[in-house]
Amino acid sequence: MMVCYKQPLLVLLISIIRLQICFTSGIKQKPHIIFILADDLGFNDVGFHGSAQIPTPNIDALAYSGIILNRYYVTPICTPSRSALMTGKYPIHTGMQHRVLYAAEPRGLPLSEKLMPEYFNELGYSSHIAGKWHLGHYKRVYTPLYRGFQSHVGCFTGHHDYFDHTAVENPSWGLDMRNGLDVAYDMHGKYSTDIITDEAVQVIRKRNASMPLFLYVAHVAVHSGNPYNPLPAPDEAVAKIQNIPDYNRRKFAAMLSKLDDSVGTIVHELSKQNMLSNSIIIFSTDNGGPAEGFNLNHASNWPLRGVKNTLWEGGVRGAALIWSPRLEKIQRVSEQTMQITDWLPTLMTAIGAPLSQNNTKLDGISIWDELSSGEESKRKSTLHNIDDIWGSAAITVGEWKLHKGTNYDGAWDGWYGPAGARDEQAYNLTAVFNCPTGKALSSIKMMPTEERIVQLRRSASVMCNSNDISKTYPMKETSCEPLKAPCLFNIKHDPCEQLNLAERYPNILNALLVQLEALNATAVPPGNKPMDSRADPRFWDNTWTNFGDFSIEK
Fold first, then answer.
1. Which of 205, 338, 463, 467 is least buried, going by the fewest C-beta atoms within 10 A?
2. What is the pLDDT of residues 500-531, one digit of tens each?
3. Active site residue 78
4. Checking phi first, is residue 484 left (phi over 0); if not, alpha (psi -120 to 50) or beta?
5. Strand 213-218 to strand 182-183: parallel, antiparallel, or no bridges (unpaired)?
6. pLDDT score, position 474
7. Which DSSP helix (H) or strand (E) runs through 394?
8. Residues 12-30: pLDDT tens digits?
9. Which of 159, 16, 225 is nearest to 544 (CA)?
10. Nearest to 493 by CA among 456, 457, 462
11. Which of 516, 483, 505 is nearest to 383 (CA)?
12. Can you give the pLDDT at residue 424?
């Protein structure tokens, strides 16, 4: 028997089917992932942590409308952090735990390691990098195009001048700017931050619309340049900074303002391409800031202790945020513990392909569900690093942090400014709403109110008062001399690491020492190599290149 439906009923049924198809497609559609990595950014260099000294409205707008990661840890220096990000493993498990990778070293992140873009590519992603690599280039198989990325515009080494793009390293200097494997001579004179931004925008515009995008924007900013121009910034950017009397700090601020502009340009393009509503954006530093002239730079981690390449909170507690409409509980400050190794498994969960930690042997833990819901993080312990060559190690378990040894013979174990203006009246809240990111987020109704922003900024500001700590632990203060004996701090109550509690809590100290020793037993030897004379750019038209793929006739 044939059943004939009346026209209105048929239209209703078709509409329901279409809605079901759209709903199902929306669930299956994987989000675009935009990972923006700053270089050497200090904890106190962004507005959302309470400083009003350097304007970062675009970064702040993302932070306030997403989640500010207030207990987020990186490793203390560049190459180890980037290896941890790409592999989801502690550097002690990849041989990347000691120093950075130098341009003349014949090594790279081991080829046996599967990297983040390779995981994503298997799920249909198109992966691209704009910016700094610093995970190996002595043979082309170590470079980005052979490690899962479809395109790369940027540099191979750890630093360069932002205008001439040469990197001064032992034993010489050479050009370090690439478009894929080709030397990018045509980019001479163009500011590196602008080059990276323009490439990111082009990747977004020219992407295959049928594929989700993974875009890794690895800025060289705000890392110092070469010794002859350590803080390279355009004159017009420096001229806009009128409130900072110290000229070096002012130039640093100008470099950071260009980085903030880059964030705004990228978010604006995502909005223009209708990608924002299906994106996950992460902004993170790679390590703590080099303060007060360390490495010829002028970042600030205040009030945290230490600098880049130390295991104090100033070296390993990073400025970071995550933003996405896919997160349930947003516009908040997260005190959930997270470490840079966690991004790989966390993002895999976010795109619906969770990893089994047992099968992959990752050190990273997926905390996507906890970030979304606001529940307590599954990460209970964090290894900051173990470097048996320098004799330094640190680990945090719960609210307790252990220091064993230190770097630079303790020369950079103090507290370094500048603090910068921290009163609310000095902070330009209007700029947060009027910047490109603020406007883009307002267009999709994700910007919080001014009142909420004020609350978030207060909550994300770390303040340390030694009198308050002494009230929590009423005892005679014992100094910390990590080169003589391990130190113990309660990071929850004492984030500035002012009061050494090793003598008061010997059982906790010993428990952390045992856990540290157990982790060290799993470490592989550091992969560092002596400098190879074949790397000298004079052999390669004054460029840093994949010298291991060629022989030199003598």
1. 467
2. 999 999 999 999 999 999 999 999 999 999 99
3. yes
4. alpha
5. unpaired
6. 64
7. strand 392-397
8. 333 333 334 333 334 469 9
9. 159
10. 462
11. 516
12. 87
Q: Using the 8-state DSSP alphabet, how is residue 305 labeled?
A: B
217: β partners: 36, 130
Cα–chain center distance at 183: 26
d(CA 302, CA 248): 17
pLDDT digits (tens, 9 = 90+) for 446-480: 999 999 999 999 999 998 876 666 666 666 667 89
Total residue count of the chain as it appears in this document: 554
- Tell whether the torsion through CA atoms of 154, 157, 161 and 167 is positive or negative: negative
CA–CA gap between residue 485 and residue 404 (Å, rounded): 7
Please give the domain boundaries of the chain with CATH numbers for all domains: 30-364+424-460 (3.40.720.10)
**Smallest Cα–Cα separation from 162: which of 216, 262, 231?**
231
Q: HEC states along 506-521?
A: HHHHHHHHHHHHHHHC
Cβ-contact 466, 489 below 8 angstroms: no
The residue type at 438 = G
| Distance from the first to the final alpha carbon of the chain | 92
Residue with tokens 């050494």: 500
Distance CA 184, CA 162 (A): 13
Backbone angles phi, psi at 187, to 5 degrees: -95, 5
Mind listing the pLDDT tens digit for each residue in 256-309? 999 999 999 999 999 999 999 999 999 999 999 999 999 999 999 999 999 999
What is the CB-side half-sphere exposure of residue 209 using CA atoms within 13 A? 5
Residue with structure tokens 């390691």?
Answer: 113
Q: Please check whether residue 382 is in contact with residue 263, taking contact to mean a CB–CB distance below 8 angstroms.
A: no
Tokens representing 25 are 């497609």
Instruction: Give the DSSP H/E element, type plus range, for residue 69.
Output: strand 67-69
Instruction: Identify whether the C-beta of residue 204 lies closer than 8 Å to the C-beta of residue 273.
Output: yes
Whether 496 sits among the annotated catalytic residues: the reply is: no
* Catalytic, out of 32, 49, 98, 134: 134
Q: In terms of Cα–Cα distance, which of 276, 288, 343 is closest to 316?
A: 288
**Six-digit token string for 309:** 């390449």
Tell me which amino acid residue 58 is: N
Query: CA 301 from chain center: how many Å?
Result: 15
Output the CA angle 276-128-226, nearest 5 degrees.
110
CA–CA dist 501, 504 (Å, integer): 5
Residue 82 tokens read as 């980037």
